[in-house]
Every structure is written in structure tokens, then in C-alpha cells.
What we know:
11 strands
Amino acid sequence: MPELPEVETIKRTLQKAIVGKTIKNIEVRKAKIFQGEPQEVIGRKIEGIERRGKMLIIKLSGDKALVVHFKLTGQMVWVPEAGEQVTVGHPIPFAGTQLPAKTTHVIFDIDGGKLFYNDLRQFGWIKVVKLDQLDKFQLGPEPFDKEFTVEYLEGIFSRTSKPIKLVLMDQTKIAGVGNIYANEALFEAGILPTRPAKKLRNEEIKKLKEAIIKVLEEGIKYGGSSAKDEAYIKPTGEPGGYQQHFRVYQRAGEKCRKCGTIIKRVNLGGRGTFWCPTCQK
DNA sequence: CTGCGGTCCTGAAGGC
DNA sequence: TGCCTTCAGGACCGCA
């Protein structure tokens, strides 16, 4: 599922591929996915690409932007035209099939190639948003920003007795952390996912803050994670590599890499939650 | 305010 | 073999 590191990878890949180019046409094959009028976007130049939390923001000439939320299974695949100078990766066959696939819901016809939005579960969306409306998305601080401090975390944790893992995944409190990286960060910090947030000691909060940054940086370094059952791929069509480095996520029944104890799994807030009973207290 | 459960959707996996 | 049920999951919504 595209979380901060996956969306950051998509952002960096697309920056090299499509910034400075013009959107010539948009084919919307599933109306509910594309929210807005294609006419508001066609003919505009892509001025820049940013990320906010798990959302990709494609800034256009004029006063508009496209905001993309990939939710569980959204993908963006950039396929350069034949003969086009390939600026990023290479157009490898998409899952052994041709694009558009049956999961392709929006196709952007851009100078030099096509950008496909695919989404198996169809939970994701693309919205046309005015630039001055971008701050309407209620999101907490970015983990890599300077407001993301131990003091900030102490503040939000002290006000709730919810399990710490659910607080980490609350986008209005911390932007971009989802199920994978919440599980991984809690292992790295040695904290049980079920601990009430307000019960964390200052020393643990310090460790957790560093752990969040560490696992997100690792995720970006490996180009995101293409875990089993998950649809994330880079816009080049290649999978990410972070899944090979998971400490606990989707490793129930396997041995902890640090101590050999069997990794456990439980449902917390409807999400698969994984931890090592020895390393996390 | 909190916390719970339903909703969207599809494919894989399990049961009989 | 084949049909039916269950499950996973980010964000949001309604209800108690």
C-alpha cells in the first residue's frame, strides 16, 4: 500500500519523467476515480510534483493541481512513446500484460508518453484542486519536517489512551505513516503496538521518533515496498525492494531477525498488527 | 470527544 | 471440481 516512502518514490520518478510537459488529453474510464472536469486540466503544463503525507500533488500551470491518493492498490505507470528519449527507468511490460489493463481507470496523454492510473480495488482517487485549496487536507506534520519533534509527539500522545500504533497511523497527527511503517517503527523502537499512547515514557518517545524517521528513510532508499498481495510498483513498472527488509510486517510465524522469537499477529483497529513478543515491551 | 462498525472493491484462500 | 463465504485494508461516515 503506498505510504510515505512509496509515494515519495513515485514523486521522484515522475519528477524526472513528466515535469515541464503538457497534458494533451485525459481519458477517464471510471468516473468515480477522477473527481473534477478533465477540461480544467487538459492543455496545462506540469510545473512540479510534490508529496504531502500519502498524497501525490501534481502542480499545473495556472491555479490548479491534481491530487492523487493511491489508498490500497493505486499505481501510476509512465510509458514513454516509442522513440522517445527515456528519461527514467524503462518501460517494462506491466505484469506481463499490455496497458491499459482492466485495472486502468485514468489515462493521461502527455508529451512524450502516457501516464496510466491503475487501481485494482478502486479505493483511490484523483482530484482537481485549486492551489489555494491544497491546505484544506487536514494532515499532521511531515516526519521529515522540523515541526516533527519529541515535544510535539509528547503532546499528541499525552492526550489519548489509544493504542500507540493507531495514533501513528492517524493522518491528522502524523502525515504519511501507514500500517507497514507503523509496525516497523514500533519494532525498531522496542514498543508494543497495543501500549496506550499516554503511557509511553519520554525515553521511549525519543526512540520512537528516531525509529519512524529511520524506517521511512529505509523505505525510500529501497524504492518503497512491494509486499505480497500489494499492488505498489514504481512508475517504471518495477517493484520496490523494501519488503525484503521487513522486521515484522507480514512475518507472523517467522523468526524475529534480532532474537529468533516467533513474530505474532493480531488485529488492531481492523489492521494486521505484527510484533516480536521478546523485543517489544 | 471516543469508539465502534459499516462502506467502498476485488481476488485469493479456505471450507464443504 | 466447484460453489459459497471470508478476509484484507485507508479513510470516511453515521451512530451510540
